[in-house]
Amino acid sequence: MSDLDLLTQSLARNVKRWRTERGFTLDALAARAGVSRGMLIQIEQARTNPSLGTVVKIGDALGVSITTLLDYEQGPAVRIVPAEQAVRLWHTGGGSYNRLLAGAEAPGPLEMWDWRLMPGESSPSDPHPAGTVELVHVTSGELTLTVDGVAHRVPTGASASFEAATPHTYGNEGEEPMEMIMAVSVPPVR
């Protein structure tokens, strides 16, 4: 499959996914984006390669970035952000700063949690509603984050984001307490 075919199929899947999550009909999205219903049908069926301008209009109407619409990751995507890759957006000579630790598109309510797991303990979670996204930032120890049966190590200072519509478990396989900050974005009830 060519890169263009991959992007066309990713765009088809993601436009339909975000349109459905936002509760938009084809007609409603067409009106919001200023593109024809027929063009949206062709895009969602991967039968056309729309212009960049059209993709921008659709992204703006859905409230998501172009990169989100063209993302061709498949399955439950887990992205680990190593501490050294956190983005420093602002700082002063006096030592003040902020850092973007991890981010994700979020259509609805957002919760922030403070977690502590003692060595050898874990907390399993059933799948959340489709569209639920979780962000974690480990402040001490090491988190073993298992998403859909795949374990991911998240060390102190690192962050991770994942779609939480599959079974997942927070675990501490280390010898010291693990502490993390977690944000959960749940899609709005329609």
List the helices and strands and how they pair.
Layout: H1 3-22, H2 26-33, H3 37-44, H4 52-62, H5 66-70, E1 78-81, E2 87-91, E3 97-100, E4 110-117, E5 122-125, E6 133-140, E7 142-147, E8 150-155, E9 159-163, E10 168-171, E11 178-185
Antiparallel strand pairs: 1-9, 2-3, 4-11, 5-10, 6-9, 6-11, 7-8, 7-10
Helix pairs in contact: 2-3, 2-4
Structure description:
The two termini are 37 Å apart. The protein has 5 helices and 11 strands. By secondary structure, the chain is of the alpha+beta class. Strands 1-9-6-11-4 form a 5-stranded antiparallel sheet, with no helix packed on it. It has a 4-stranded antiparallel sheet with strand order 5-10-7-8, with no helix packed on it. A two-stranded antiparallel sheet has the order 2-3.
Structural class: alpha+beta
How do the SSEs run, as a string of H and E?
HHHHHEEEEEEEEEEE
Helical content stands at: 25-40%
Largest sheet: 5 strands, antiparallel
Order of neighbouring strands in the sheet with most strands: 1-9-6-11-4
Radius of gyration: 19 Å
Distance between the termini: 37 Å
Helical segment count: 5
Keywords:
190 residues, alpha+beta, five-stranded antiparallel β-sheet, four-stranded antiparallel β-sheet, 5 helices, elongated
In short:
This protein has five helices and eleven strands, in the order αααααβββββββββββ.
